[in-house]
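User: Good morning. I'm curious how magnesium ion would be positioned relative to this chain. Could you predict the structure with it bound?
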Amino acid sequence: MTLPRVLVCDDKENYTKLFQRILPDDRFEVVTAGDGARALGLLAASEFDVIVTDIRMPGADGLTVLRQAHARDPDIEVILMTAYATVPAAVSAMREGAFDYLAKPFEPDEALLVVERAVERRRLRQQARDLRLALEGIHQIDKLVAKSPAMAPALALIQRAAAGDATVLLAGESGTGKEVAARAIHASGTRHDGRFVAVNCGAIPEALIESELFGHVKGSFTGAATDHRGLFEEAEAGTIFLDEISELPLAMQVKLNRVLQERAVRRVGASHEHPVDVRVIAATNRDLRAQVAAGHFREDLFYRLNVLPIVLPPLRERREDIPVLAAVFLERHGGGRPGRPQGFTAESLSALVRHDWPGNVRELENAVERALAVSDGRRIELEALPDEVAQTLRPRLTRSTEIHLTYREVVDLARDRASREYLIALMRELGGNVTEGARRAGMERESMHRLLKRYGVRSEEFKQRT
Ligand SMILES: Nc1ncnc2c1ncn2[C@@H]1O[C@H](COP(=O)(O)OP(=O)(O)OP(=O)(O)O)[C@@H](O)[C@H]1O
Ligand SMILES: [Mg+2]
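Assistant: Good morning! Here's the predicted structure, ligand included:
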């Protein structure tokens, strides 16, 4: 059984010290932060069960900490500490979902009791949720939730990966949850006490990648004023997540391959290597095999990474997940609380399920978040959803009115609808390649262009990101 983790934030040290004394270390794991910014950093990097935070702090105030905590995990219980002057703020925080508040000064016993109650409520809420999920056939590994049969192979592989130490290669379109899956493997595996270090290989300037990943020694290049640990060393005993691995320059691919082979890194400018104990998870939204074939990705590195390949299917191929994910995101972004929307109308839910989600789960999460921001009723209505999502219901709505049209008009309508759907599917399949599209459709390229224009389908939108 792991101990409940409690984060205590206060800029006054006597309060953080006080909690370290009040909460016995055989029953609680206490982590402290001396200002709001540090608290937010800790929150982003690890998991907590309960947060006790002062309202007024430099860096970020207690309310910001509360909101960030709930954005990460709606079941975190937050207790605010207030001086007399900030009691109204504490009261409004309660409305935003804080568990309770402690008015300073308070008795140690009182503080212990509140934290104990918060831990208990979190435990009960988690139990209730696990039970509900199990009853509904929903699987959850860390933050990753899924229900669809299409996700079953990926879930099984994620569990297998967590049980061992093999290198994992995650593939899937943008927004399908590759990072969520990587974190799930780390969090439910034997390395969860170590760090999870995420690196976006496409975002680091080429000249800096080597020293970022492997570190450097003082004086090894201009600007290297001190010794520097690389991200591989930071991830010691934990996991390194190499995101967008296809973006790694070829020269770095050679070096990475060597590190994976030797399980040792050499800092830039150093004369010796030293061993690292790190699990590697790489991710890509491109077809790495094709990159290898085209000479953009080294074959030896590909095989070294492709030990345990896991493919996350696009959301449009696992629509059963949509209602489940939508409910998770509703709660994550403030729904389900008093006075906020509790769910979706049947109509808006069916629009969510029908939409094709080119941006996958991320697009769904954004849509739900935006819908919440413009909704104040009990349920999220169709009108609150982005136009392109609400659109998916329109054809059906028109159908009931079609009997009022002439035969000619109905046929025209149907043809327009079918044309548009066909063109979208074609461009999606061919990544926006108009010439190839024309060939498949059996027409001249110019005619294809005319059609695309007429139906408002923009081929550029289907081009692969490079
Ligand atoms: N199965 C899931 N369960 C819960 N949340 C998910 C799931 N999949 C994705 N998400 C959410 O969707 C968003 C995008 O996921 P993530 O960042 O893992 O995608 P990605 O595949 O890494 O995308 P990209 O290739 O663009 O980096 C995240 O905010 C995450 O919370
Ligand atoms: Mg990602």
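The longest strand covers residues 77-82. The chain has four domains: 5-132, 151-311, 316-397, 403-462.
Let me know if you'd like a different ligand tried.
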